[in-house]
Write a structure and sequence with these properties.
This protein is 0% helix and 27% strand. It has strands at 15-18, 21-24, 30-31, 56-58, 76-77, 81-82, 90-94, 98-102, 107-109. The strands form three sheets. It has a three-stranded antiparallel β-sheet, with no helix packed on it. A three-stranded antiparallel β-sheet has the order 5-4-9, with no helix packed on it. Strands 6-7-8 form a three-stranded antiparallel β-sheet, with no helix packed on it. The N and C termini lie far apart (49 Å).
Length: 110
């Protein structure tokens, strides 16, 4: 039996090869062997990789449900937290709005 490759998503050792892809029997993740996990990286509007704790700037006015005004372009957001498994993949606190989730495509790294 050849060397097994652990799953990059759940780190399970129970993986197998099928049709040129590696498949995890625990979480059913599929990936090409030797391919880096680009999908786990969260990129801003300019293509820069974001990290937990970064400061970002909103690049366009974003309407907020239940708020009388939008989050204005140019608003600086400090100490973000990333959520790679969500559509709105940035958790943050914005002065005047409180806690909210943003999409990474509407911010740039400061």
């Amino acid at each position: 039996m050849s060397d097994t490759i652990n799953c990059p998503k759940c780190d399970s050792e129970f993986t197998y090869e099928q049709d040129g892809l590696m498949v995890c029997s625990q979480c059913f993740n599929e990936w090409k062997p030797g391919e880096t996990a680009e999908e786990d990286k969260i990129l801003d509007a300019n293509g820069n990789e974001l990290q937990d704790g970064d400061t970002v700037v909103v690049v366009k006015d974003l309407p907020v449900k239940g708020a009388p005004k939008p989050v204005k372009a140019g608003t600086k957001v400090k100490n973000i937290r990333l959520r790679p498994d969500s559509d709105h993949n940035i958790d943050c606190k914005i002065d005047g709005f409180g806690s909210m989730a943003l999409k990474s495509e509407f911010v740039k790294k400061a």
